[in-house]
UniProtKB/TrEMBL annotation, chains A, B:
Keywords: Electron transport, Endosome, Glycoprotein, Heme, Iron, Lysosome, Membrane, Metal-binding, Oxidoreductase, Translocase, Transmembrane, Transmembrane helix, Transport. GO terms for molecular function: metal ion binding; transmembrane ascorbate ferrireductase activity. Pfam families: Cytochrom_B561. Its EC number is 7.2.1.3. This is Lysosomal membrane ascorbate-dependent ferrireductase CYB561A3. Gene3D superfamilies: 1.20.120.1770. It comes from the Eukaryota. It comes from Geotrypetes seraphini (Gaboon caecilian). It catalyses: monodehydro-L-ascorbate radical(out) + L-ascorbate(in) = monodehydro-L-ascorbate radical(in) + L-ascorbate(out); Fe(3+)(out) + L-ascorbate(in) = monodehydro-L-ascorbate radical(in) + Fe(2+)(out) + H(+).
Amino acid sequence: MMKSSSLFCLLYLLVLLLGFLCIALTGYWVQRWRGGFALQGSALFNWHPVCMITGLIVLYGSAALVYRLPFSWTGSKFPWKLLHASLTLAAFIVSVLGLVAVFKFHNDHKFPNLYSLHSWLGLAAVGLFSCQWVTALCTFLLPWASIWLRNLYKPIHVFFGMMILTLSVAAALAGINEKLIFSLDPRINGSLPYASLPPEACLMNAVGILIVVFGLLVLWMLLRPTWQRPDLSGPEVRQPLLEDDEEEECQ
Amino acid sequence: MMKSSSLFCLLYLLVLLLGFLCIALTGYWVQRWRGGFALQGSALFNWHPVCMITGLIVLYGSAALVYRLPFSWTGSKFPWKLLHASLTLAAFIVSVLGLVAVFKFHNDHKFPNLYSLHSWLGLAAVGLFSCQWVTALCTFLLPWASIWLRNLYKPIHVFFGMMILTLSVAAALAGINEKLIFSLDPRINGSLPYASLPPEACLMNAVGILIVVFGLLVLWMLLRPTWQRPDLSGPEVRQPLLEDDEEEECQ
């Protein structure tokens, strides 16, 4: 029977593959049907779905699983903290670029911002993400917080991490649905209607389902007890952070 | 300091209040701006959002928390199983009525079915829900399955239960967004555009956020370890179900 750690690694590869597929298919959709990428004009918008899926879902979801990698459980935790912080920071920066693209596109074309439920959800996800990142930096990475505070905050950080991913997935699904309604409108641009399910509608509906599978897989891998980092936070291993490499509050 | 069980009961009341608010505000929206309820014509559609939010989100989420009620932990588990099964069955029936409403409305008006990502997500949620209900009936309620099988299936049932709620919330959010885009279209019905955020858009965007808060609260209450039913599944209390009232596999 396959070892639990091997199964985890195999599923992590599947997560990365699914994530890559979501980004690549969204890029293909934009390139094939929506005018490709540009820094102005209507193609400026196209950075938005690609950046948001890359940052807020794929990079974010992959970063969330770092502490579940079995080979991260031995030795110093500090490099894994740095990797987790760096990947989530990259996820945040790419998401912000995606927001810049859509705000600039709206402003250039005198379209209103932030009216749809999709935009409210997306903004809530990015807002919570920024709070989460700064709070985690202050609590887990910088040497100010006590072990007591870290252990108090840890389950809150993990829960909000999962909820931000869930919110991001919901925002992405509403966004794909919204974009297909607007784009596949024969009254405006003579395209086939969304209701006739042309190839690009099938493709992006399928990407929506892939995003759901990606999100559910990440959540399942985060929640499975046997894949959670063993709690080594007994008093004998609790030492001030950044003074010694052996910080061991469980995350 | 407040007892953990009192906090749970208080939050359960908050869940019920939030759920009631989501249903009442959606009903108000339909009544005030979308022509009320009817069994034919365009008002037939209006049963769809109300039934789906009532069944697939509010009833479903409330039913999921039944085993976390502290006073369900003592005495026989059987009445609580029946309550959980009945509430989820009611949730399923109300959801199916919501689906019947939208299919009949589409067919009456020669609109295509099942093309949007919203509809794919909603159908996936209802499909998984029906599989989940039947599998749980056969495993937990009928006397066929062994304790070994029940304990094997239990974490899968709990995980899929949470994922179906998450999927339902995502489908509802995409659906509200879609309905507001279609309804608030000056080219078709001379209404104010969604982009100008008229009162009904603000109301239903806010209902979307309330649904997110409802879903996150239910998931948090399900995941919090201290609110999970103690595992009494030691060999001394494992007895065949429906032969004795003392079935005790942990759920």
